[in-house]
Structures are given as structure tokens and as C-alpha cells.
Design a protein that fits this description.
It is a single chain. This protein is α/β, with parallel strands linked by helices. The chain has 2 domains: 125 residues, 3-Layer(aba) Sandwich (Rossmann fold); 85 residues, Arc Repressor Mutant, subunit A (Orthogonal Bundle). Helices cover 46% and strands 15% of the residues. It contains 10 helices and 8 strands. The strands form 2 sheets. It has a 6-stranded parallel β-sheet with strand order 2-1-3-6-7-8, sandwiched between helices. The chain has a two-stranded antiparallel sheet with strand order 4-5. Strand 7, helix 4 and strand 8 form a beta-alpha-beta unit. The longest helix has 15 residues.
Length: 222
């Protein structure tokens, strides 16, 4: 039998929280190990409960869900974090990505997106709500911390980067731009080199935090 994905759900709205629990209880391969409504309760749950994925609301009343991310590994937990939110601005998105979240799902999304996000993140991938990262980069101003001497992107690299910011997998990117997955992987490696990073998540972080004006112009030009 396939090992189940253990979930910690942190949301201060009881109706939404219990609705998500009911949804996940019907999904094979997923179980809700704990649920709570505050950052403090979430930290205690991480320290005492085996958890694979944390579903974390951004707006917890007087608290921000990102407060939990300052110490997500308390108690030896290696749980990955998905922000589940009604909406996040560019600054909040940047903070969440920098803190190490593995995905962002909007509360008004199709429930299937949440299920898919859980499975992908649990398997070591990332999941970003379509368009949310591009909205964040659109608010970027570029700064002195941007990677130096960024070479112009090719058309293929521009397409791949735009698709990554839309939350697509390599297979979905290949279908979108009508190339092989091998070609997509090669373009991603080229983007890693240009950005000075080694992983997809780091590329996303750079795209939000240190996006050069040149790159913003490049991916939005076509």
C-alpha cells in the first residue's frame, strides 16, 4: 500500500478549515494528521506530530502565516509548506518564497488544484498558482542585488521562464511550446546558469526578489 501523505492544516476560519478536512478525508493517499488555527498551535503540532505537508493560511487574523516559516523545522520536522490563501501581494509572496514555501494555492481555486499541489509538493516538486508569481514579478523594480551582466534570453528561454512562473511542470511546458521535455530541461539548465542558481525554486526566488528590469522586459515582450 502506498504511504499516505500526512497533512497539518493551519487556518483560523473554522468553516474553511473543516471543509478542507472533509475534502482531504475523501482523497486516497492523504490524511489530516492535525488541524489548528494559530502559529503557536502549528509549531506545537510540528513538534509532536508526523507531518509531510503543511497547508498554511497566509492571513491568520492578527498573525501572518509566514511567522511559522521562521522555524518550520521545529521538532525535527521536514514538512514542506504550501500557502493556501485568499490572496497575497508581491511583498508577501516574496517573503513566503524566501522562507522556503514549496507552493502557493489560492482559496478560490478548483479543489483539484489543491490535491495536485499536495501530491507534487510531497514528491519534492513545487506548485505555484497560475499567474501568481508573474503578478509578483510584475511589481518588481529590480535592484542592485540583481544577477550581474544577465545575458539576453532566447525566445525559448523566455517561453520556458514564463511557463515556470505560470506554475507548469516540464511536461506541461513541453506541450505548451511544442517541444520535447528534454529540450525544456536543457532550457531550464540554461536559465539556472544565467541566474546563478541550481534549482527551480531558487530560480523562482530570483525571479521575484532580484528580477532585473532586462528580464522583466524580456519575458513580457512576447
Amino acid at each position: 500500500m502506498t504511504e499516505r501523505i500526512r497533512i497539518l492544516l493551519i487556518d483560523d476560519h473554522t468553516l474553511f478549515r473543516e471543509s478542507v478536512v472533509r475534502l482531504l478525508e475523501t482523497e486516497p493517499g492523504i490524511e489530516v494528521s492535525a488541524r489548528c488555527s494559530t502559529v503557536a498551535e502549528g509549531r506545537k503540532a510540528l513538534a509532536s506530530t508526523e507531518v509531510d505537508v503543511v497547508l498554511l493560511d497566509y492571513d491568520l487574523g492578527d498573525e501572518a502565516g509566514t511567522d511559522l516559516l521562521s522555524a518550520p523545522g521545529q521538532g525535527g520536522s521536514n514538512a514542506k509548506v504550501i500557502m493556501v490563501t485568499a490572496g497575497m501581494g508581491a511583498s508577501a509572496t516574496l517573503n513566503a518564497v524566501n522562507a522556503g514555501v514549496a507552493g502557493i494555492v489560492l482559496k478560490h481555486s478548483d479543489p483539484r488544484y489543491l490535491i495536485e499541489a499536495i501530491h507534487r509538493v510531497a514528491s519534492g516538486e513545487t506548485w505555484w498558482d497560475p499567474g501568481i508569481l508573474r503578478n509578483a514579478t510584475a511589481d518588481g523594480k529590480g535592484n542592485a542585488g540583481s544577477p550581474g551582466n544577465v545575458r539576453s534570453l532566447t525566445d525559448r528561454q523566455r517561453q520556458v521562464l514564463r511557463s515556470i512562473l505560470d506554475g507548469l511542470t516540464n511536461k506541461e511546458i513541453a506541450a505548451r511550446i511544442e517541444v520535447s521535455e528534454t529540450s525544456v530541461k536543457a532550457s531550464i539548465q540554461e536559465l539556472f546558469s544565467k541566474a546563478g542558481v541550481r534549482t527551480r525554486s531558487q530560480l523562482v526566488r530570483v525571479a521575484i526578489e532580484r528580477y532585473s528590469l532586462e528580464w522583466l522586459k524580456e519575458i513580457n515582450s512576447k
